Task: structure prediction
Amino acid sequence: MASQIFFPLDAREVSWETETDQSWEVNEQKSASGKRRAMTYQTLPGWTFTITFPGLTSEKKDDLFAFFSRVKGTLIPFFYKDAENYKCENVVLAKNTDGSYQLVANMHGQQEPIYYADNLHVYVDGVEQGDTSYKLDRGALVFTNAPAATAKVTASYEYYWKVKFAKSKLQIKQKFDNIFQVTLSLEVIR
Result:
């Protein structure tokens, strides 16, 4: 697996404001009689995090510009740990057809697959497993020795959203000497 790329600013360490948007692409047609037909190809909603950092230092501003260049704007996806939506406790994991167990996030009642997590604690039938008994592969737990078919696998973890910048332009405003402000949007991708 290629090396992971992580958003350089931790919203829990700098001042921030955030907005979370949910979207659905719906195709709609109306007949002459007024009958409506609508459908969507999405099985999961689109999510966008819009984050305002009102007081970045010059160093953090430079880190953000360098990161934007590294991912070439909207081209390369990366991982972002949101300040609010990032933690799961004692989640019962579903078994995939390949025998792995998918980590998920519960986003406002919507269960979402996630592709990277840390601070991971895994339990099989209530017994914590050592970190050498499994590996994390694109958000799925793969056990060295598979648990029994009837085993209950649970986990607690902090997760990251796989995102890209929503716009190909990054504009940072200088407010005062060594104080900068930026608002940016990150779109969840799968």
Q: What stands out?
A: Residues 17-28+37-188 form one domain. Helices lie at 58-70. The chain has one domain: 17-28+37-188.
